């Protein structure tokens, strides 16, 4: 079996446990069906667009949020927050027309006193197993999670754990991660930190593992590397792996920094992480349990994730510089100055990498280790924090236009006409 075939088989394991999902038609959770920002093969999607070019539909999104869209069968789902009414909500849109189908309020009057101006009260993305929707919010000094059916009816609503940062009141960000019959949620702050797994049918706790009492924001990710399923997370000055079925620690390696936001990626049996605060570091670690650090550098992708593809790592850093590093040894293949700041994570689809900066500029490039190869730079709105979903030959983008009372969010469906 070729390395490409081995990697494809490992990727498919991400969605194999969920028979009601399809990698060709669904984008069911943060970073897509393979959890790494890589779309299913043979996506025929546009590389250029504007507010009118290649727009299938455009619809207004009420409230404010940075959660990325998920797509399951004939619907698109988002979280949002009404900052006046102080409500957390889930929204459903029709995939064909963009029409809003329903809105379900999850909680109200429990917003924290402070939040980082670049964060929102609806930053975590939704996750779906093809039957239910799973969401989490920062509410009244806790992290709360809920499950809904596809018509917006609540199935369960539970408190996951305390979450009440004091030193840095920057809000909450990690998205729920699904593994078999559990919903895994991270709560890292300067208090009783941990990662917990809830039963997806009931919301009751299955396991919990402690983390250091230190604020960090990364979403844990399931990767099948070194012959096993591993729950990977960066932050707290470590790269750490857990057994996703029990929460037991498998291995750790010193690296990155105290706080990270990006989700880890992998290539073969090597995993990559970047951050953050208070220093900048990108690191590659062998995931076989040895904790061996293969390479590191002083670049930083703090809020955004990276992309590992075909033996190389692609990263648009906070300052707007795009890098390509060789995965096996970290050799810098090229760097190219674009424009930051950056919060959105990249998606590889149809032979191209799609990624935006916070100003609404969406860069499209060919993953070419020989040189930076830009195909297009498309402007859509004037604010872009969420990441795109690319599935079924369509691109779904949440963006915003205007500021203050005139700010309005939109959901776009882009495709070749």
Shape: globular
What structural class results from the helix and strand content? mainly beta
**What CATH architecture label applies?**
7 Propeller
Give the integer mean of the pLDDT values.
Answer: 95
| Largest beta-sheet characterization | 4 strands, antiparallel
Helix count, per DSSP? 1
Total count of domains = 1
Total strands: the figure is 32
Low-confidence stretches: 1-9
Portion in helices: under 10%
- Beta fraction: 35-45%
Could you describe the 3D structure shown?
The protein has a four-stranded antiparallel beta sheet with strand order 1-32-31-30, with no helix packed on it. It has a four-stranded antiparallel beta sheet with strand order 2-3-4-5, with no helix packed on it. It is globular, with a radius of gyration of 19 Å. The chain has a single domain (3-414), classed as YVTN repeat-like/Quinoprotein amine dehydrogenase (Methylamine Dehydrogenase, Chain H), CATH 2.130.10.10. The two termini are 39 Å apart. The chain has one helix and 32 strands. It is mostly beta strands and 417 residues long. The longest helix has 14 residues, at 3-16. 3% of the residues lie in helices and 44% in strands.
Task: Give a brief rundown of this model.
By secondary structure, the protein is mainly β. It has one helix at residues 3-16; strands spanning 55-61, 70-72, 75-82, 87-94, 100-108, 127-128, 133-139, 142-148, 154-162, 177-179, 182-187, 194-199, 205-210, 221-225, 228-235, 238-242, 249-254, 265-267, 270-275, 281-286, 293-297, 307-309, 312-316, 321-326, 332-337, 347-349, 352-356, 361-366, 373-379, 389-391, 394-401, 408-414.
């Amino acid at each position: 079996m070729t390395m490409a075939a081995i990697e494809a088989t490992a990727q498919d394991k991400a969605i194999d446990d969920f028979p009601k999902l399809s990698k060709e038609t669904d984008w069911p959770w943060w970073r897509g069906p393979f959890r790494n920002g890589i779309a299913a093969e043979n996506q025929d999607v546009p590389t250029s667009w504007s507010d009118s070019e290649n727009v299938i539909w455009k619809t207004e999104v009420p409230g404010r949020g940075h959660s990325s869209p998920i797509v399951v069968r004939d619907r698109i789902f988002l979280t949002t927050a009404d900052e006046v009414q102080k409500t957390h909500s889930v929204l459903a849109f029709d995939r064909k027309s963009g029409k809003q189908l329903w809105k379900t309020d999850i909680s109200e009057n429990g917003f924290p006193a402070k939040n980082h101006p670049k964060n929102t009260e609806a930053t975590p993305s939704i996750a779906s197993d093809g039957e239910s929707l799973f969401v989490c919010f920062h509410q009244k000094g806790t992290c709360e999670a809920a499950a809904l059916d596809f018509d917006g009816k609540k199935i369960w609503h539970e408190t996951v754990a305390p979450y009440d940062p004091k030193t840095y009141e920057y809000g909450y960000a990690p998205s729920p991660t699904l593994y078999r019959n559990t919903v895994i949620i991270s709560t890292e702050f300067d208090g009783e930190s941990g990662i917990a797994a809830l039963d997806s049918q009931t919301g009751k706790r299955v396991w919990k593992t402690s983390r250091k009492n230190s604020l960090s924001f990364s979403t844990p990710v399931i990767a099948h590397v070194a012959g096993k399923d591993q729950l990977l997370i960066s932050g707290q000055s470590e790269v750490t792996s857990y057994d996703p079925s029990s929460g037991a620690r498998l291995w750790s390696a010193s690296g990155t920094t105290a706080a990270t936001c990006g989700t880890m990626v992998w290539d073969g049996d090597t995993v990559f992480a970047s951050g953050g605060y208070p220093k900048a570091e990108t690191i590659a670690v062998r995931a076989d349990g040895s904790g061996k650090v293969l390479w590191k550098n002083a670049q930083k992708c703090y809020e955004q994730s990276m992309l590992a593809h075909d033996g190389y790592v692609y990263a648009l850093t906070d300052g707007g510089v795009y890098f390509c590093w060789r995965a096996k040894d970290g050799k810098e293949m090229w760097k190219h100055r674009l424009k930051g700041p950056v919060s959105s994570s990249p998606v590889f689809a149809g032979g191209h990498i799609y990624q935006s900066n916070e100003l609404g500029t969406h860069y499209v490039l060919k993953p070419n280790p020989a040189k930076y190869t830009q195909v297009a730079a498309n402007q859509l709105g004037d604010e872009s924090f969420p990441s795109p979903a690319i599935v079924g030959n369509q691109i779904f983008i949440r963006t915003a236009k205007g500021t203050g009372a005139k700010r309005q969010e939109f959901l776009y469906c882009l495709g070749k006409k």
